[in-house]
Amino acid sequence: MLKYAICQISGKQxxxxxxxxxxxDFLGEEIKxxxxxxxxxxxxxxxxxxxxxxxxxxxxxxxxxxxGEKIRIAKFHAKANFRRLKGFRPKYTNILWDVKKIY
Length: 103
Hints:
The chain is mainly β. It has one domain (4-97). It has no helices and 9 strands. It is elongated.
């Protein structure tokens, strides 16, 4: 059966599958493993729902960090000859739910 969990990582909710890489917002350079709260856990067709969290916690392994696509921000004022361009590249962290380390 399909096994997955919905967990809260840095204030956002993500659907996490075992042995699949998930891209989340940047967590920090020094972090190697994170322990997250679980909202919903589906194993063998049985669903456990927390109020708001379950007692179980997931251990997620941090794989690497990367930068996303560049976002360009343009400011423009008509008739004033004012133009500004700014760029921004968000940082992301790739994490993995290793099935061997479930709780």
